[in-house]
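retry 2 of 3: previous attempt timed out while embedding magnesium ion. Reduced batch size to 1 and resubmitted. Inputs unchanged:
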Amino acid sequence: MLLVALTQVACSQQLPQHSEQNLHNNLMYAVAWKQTAAEYRALYHQGFNLARMRLELALVNRTPGSRPLAVISDVDETLLLSSSYWGYLVNQRQDFFDDSSWDKWIAENRTIASPGASKFLQFCKENNVEVFYVTSRNQGEETYQFALANLASAGFPYVDSQHVTVLRDSSNKEIVQQQISEEYDVVVLLGDNLNDFSRRYYVTEVDQRLELSEEDSDKYGRDYILFPNPTDGHWIRAIFGDSEPPANDQNRLIFKHAATSSAWSR
Ligand SMILES: [Mg+2]
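retry 2 succeeded.
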């Protein structure tokens, strides 16, 4: 079956000769999925459709004098995709996230809107539901301007200093979320990392994260709308103790242990 599939791929595309390249790369499966899978894109539509249903319900249930409605969203891999950056890493034979090239890539303003993001955000705007963008990024002094440029280039609404928060020194979004919640009824939070929803997920162990996600199972698709990200996030931190682990064989071995933690032992 797999042979048939590979033959079809080989026949349908002119595959370049890469015999001189390193074809063993930790990132390959995840990045190929991001670049090609209709399922990846459909999960974004699914998330935004759920978010819209939550908003429609909240709009119907509004009562006179109630606080204005709001959505709080993460930015990267939630509203803006960076798939071309990850493809670049594979071409560079890099198999871990690289912060210095990421900063250069961000400055070139190449992020693109995730599937369904523009439509959902426009729905928010049309219904006077304010959108607050809260992201953790650090590209130095120009961090905020880069984030604004990325969001504005996508044509998103509410891209201004009142609605865009960039945390340069922390990934803790709760303080900003609480400030927004004092003035607005926050209907949903959007993110690709559980930490985008609550700081209680900022724990160090894989098993702790898994337990917390089970405890909060009723919240997903209701209060928390989660988008897929198989390349980066705090799931990486839970494995390595570092969200951006250095590329070395020790970490490749740690990755292998993670991948085989419940492997068939036959
Ligand atoms: Mg993100």
